[in-house]
Amino acid sequence: MNITHTSPEQMRRRRIIKKGFQLCIMVCGHSGTGKSTFINTLCDGEVYPPNEPIRSTTEMTVGTHHINIDEEDGTVISLTVVDTPGFGDAIDNNDCRGKILKYIEEQYDDILAEENRVKRKPKFKDNRVHVLLYFIAPTGHGLKELDIDLMLSLSTRVNVIPVLAKADTLTAEEISLNKYAIMESISHFKIPIYYFPCDEDEDEDILRECTNLRKYVPFAIVGSNDFHRDETGNPVRARQYPWGLVKVNDPAHSDFSLLRSVLFGSHLEELRDLTQDIMYENYRTEKLSEERDEEFTEEEFEEPEFKSSGNNTNCNTNEESLHHSMPGVSQPKPLESKRLQDIEQSIQIEIEKKRKELLRQEAELKELTEKLAISKYDKRYNLEYEPIATE
Question: Whole-angstrom Cα distance, residue 109 to residue 112?
């Protein structure tokens, strides 16, 4: 009987595969750039039925779809796709950025609220957006003003990966020109996209992989809802043209398979880690700092001074009665007053130290100036002198 020994690493891998991964992708871009078709292609299903009429709306909305994807190695990916129909269709699109940013930050707020609970929910679902795929129309003119504005705003909250949409409408040379124009705009406006970062001390294979992936940004994508038979007779997702097939998963025709491998394989954990360790932590720090500053401002509230002639007892009585008659104003607590006095005292001590240090430096500068003047005088007239004694 053969006994197979399973290493702890293999056991952990099996548990991870059995449990599955959670990934949240947001797709954003102007209408008609193939976002819905891309989602169907990515999920290998019909999240949006092909025969469904084109969704036309003058107001941007946010919709979510939850799909379980089974990979070939048995890994289950619980995928959440966040769509933004209506983006860029209105006459005034200034509100588009606000709605997308609000949705992303609301997911961070949910996590922050859950962390502060005494008893957390065991089945709480993390809906933070791990990556935003921004679809760019193949115009050949780089990024539009709306593209730049949105990518700059969202890149501090989510990992942004630019995508060149409808690459099947371009020749190989036109794809290269479009990619160059887009990257020129990104570089000029210093948009911090997800550009496959890696440390110098990383493994050589990882460094080589990241360097190679950067050459494909933005990823030129082709999507299709239809299946056609290829040269071998096997059904494949492709677009049929009079001159032949454009295969979605063929690296010679599209970067789709490479992007799918990045999202569901090689960089899935890195995108999740960056969201947790960088994006969320920065937002959490900003949020808590704002709340602390608001509380500190409320504690620093000072009452107006009321000057009055007469004895101190009457003055204090009048101030107290006037204070209680003012709605929304509370008497400062003794502990808070003591803390403010301590802060003021420490600031005064620090100012006095700085003043003494400044006076000392001024005295040294004056002494040095006098020595320099005497030295110049002696050199001019060749006089001998005794150095000035300093205290």
Answer: 5
The partner residues of 235 in beta bridges, in order of sequence, read: 229
Amino acid occupying residue 226: D
For residue 383, the tally of other CB atoms under 10 A from its CB is 9
Rounded to whole angstroms, the Cα distance separating 133 from 163 reads 6
Alpha helices in the chain (DSSP H): 8-19, 35-43, 94-115, 145-154, 172-188, 204-214, 256-261, 268-274, 281-299, 312-325, 334-381
Neighbours of 356 (CB within 10 A): 10
pLDDT digit string (tens) for 5-57?
555 555 555 665 666 788 999 999 888 888 989 998 988 877 777 666 555 54
Of the candidates 152, 162, 172, 158, the one whose C-alpha atom is nearest the C-alpha of residue 213 is 162
Burial of 158 (0-12, 13-18, 19+ CB in 10 A): buried
Which residue type occupies 212? Answer: N
Q: Name the amino acid, one letter, at 213.
A: L
pLDDT exceeds 80 at position 301: no
- The enclosing H or E element of 239 equals strand 235-241
Nearest partner of 271 among 193, 212, 165, 207, judged by Cα: 193
340's CB contacts (< 8 A; 6+ apart) are: 299, 300
The tokens describing 331, both together, are 């008497």
Order of strands, edge to edge, in the sheet holding 227-229? 227-229, 235-241, 244-247
Q: What is the mean pLDDT of residues 297-319?
A: 51
- pTM as predicted: 0.70
Residues 6+ apart with CB under 8 A from 143: 136, 151, 182, 185, 186, 189
Q: Contact, 32 vs 88, CB < 8 A?
A: no
